[in-house]
Amino acid sequence: MTETFRWRVASDNKAVHKFDVRSVRFGDGYEQRQPKSLKPKLRSWEIKIVGQKALMGEIKAFFDARRGVEPFNWRPPDGVPVLVKVSEY
Questions:
Q1: Domain count, the chain
Q2: Core-most of 27, 55, 67, 87, by most CB within 10 Å?
Q3: For residue 83, what is the enclosing H or E element?
Q4: What tens digit of pLDDT does each residue of 15-46 get?
Q5: For residue 82, which of 32, 28, 45, 36 has the smallest C-alpha distance?
Q6: pLDDT at residue 86, rounded to an integer
Q7: Considering the domain boundaries, does residue 89 fall inside one?
Q8: Contact 89, 5 (CB under 8 A)
Q9: 37 CB contacts (<8 Å, ≥6 apart)?
Q10: Strands (E), 2-77
Q11: What percent of the chain shows pLDDT beyond 90?
């Protein structure tokens, strides 16, 4: 069963949207672009959590338990639940 990130994050989060595309340039200046996958739009979030030391320890332990590999459920500010992975914090 996939775990859920249950802690509250600050309201001033920053989302970055990136399109994962493959680009080939030819000698005459022509460029051909195509998506690398069926879902080429990648979203990443920079979140801030303010709290006591014990709370930070719980969150770090949650991230460490996933080892940057296992996804977990998270509800971003737009309200649509997503599966995410944290590779660094």
A1: 1
A2: 55
A3: strand 82-84
A4: 899 999 999 999 999 999 999 999 999 989 99
A5: 45
A6: 95
A7: no
A8: no
A9: 20
A10: 14-19, 21-25, 31-35, 41-46, 72-74
A11: 73
| Residue 45 one-letter amino acid | W
Query: Is 73 within the bounds of a domain?
Result: yes
In the chain, helix, strand, coil percent, each to 5?
Answer: 15, 35, 50
Choose among 51, 49, 59: nearest CA to 13.
49
When computed from its CA atoms, the radius of gyration of the chain, rounded to whole angstroms, is 17
Quote the domain boundaries for residue 71. Answer: 14-84
Could you tell me the pTM of the whole model? 0.73
45 vs 3: CA distance, rounded Å = 19
> What is the CA angle 58-59-62, rounded to 5?
90
